[in-house]
């Protein structure tokens, strides 16, 4: 299977220039460990609060005018939904988004506010519902990760990491469908070949870890994957993303629900970063799995900050009283 190239990622970077925020690397002196330092890549600062705008914008940007006029359809747990809606509104493209009926109300409301038509479906059925809608309406399907243009767009975050921290020793990236980890690994391995790239998953949705160990896709039931509070990490890799992950990742790490929650609080208190649970898994791996990381600078991607306000308050209250 053909993998996305670093040249495709560079082309995507030109398309999203001035649209996606070129997020900085933030030093975390409070998290220094012997021989290791932590740098955060705060993708929560993107216009829709998550990295997904990179891939969505790139995928829409390359569509022919005839396809743009017919509209787009996407399916998502929430952040890709907002990203496609954002890009579609900017380009005057009609958009229909199928969102998990278990997604946070915050993400559903934000997608509607961006002008997209929203259809709710069970997580296990959302892809099929989206494909049916696309066929019915003659629209183009923009999947959340299973597409070279989406992967290339997400990889632009890896270009920025390599440019800002060419001496990076390790990069921690959350994994759900695998588009972000695939794209970042393409860029980092091409430009910083000595760096290790680790995918990170919640223990309650660790299907990629099992697949990585088995050397083939291992599927977890949807009802198992939805147990994690990291709602953006409940998807599973495709054949395309898994090919990237097995070729480019050094390993897949997992973190517990308690570690995810505590890291959300740590990021807020120590670095003034608002992270949703999905966005906290990579920093959580640095804080709780340090022994497996090589010495040197570590970059952890905070993939998003679209957290339910009540959940955020609960986590901060827990930290205050612990």
TrEMBL record:
Q: Which controlled-vocabulary keywords does the entry list?
A: Lyase, Pyridoxal phosphate
UniProt organism field: Pseudonocardia eucalypti
Source domain of life is Bacteria
Cofactor(s) the protein needs: pyridoxal 5'-phosphate
All residue ranges annotated as the Tryptophan synthase beta chain-like PALP domain in the record: 21-304
Q: What is this protein called?
A: Threonine/serine dehydratase
Q: Which InterPro entries match?
A: Ser/Thr_Dehydratase, TrpB-like_PALP, TrpB-like_PALP_sf
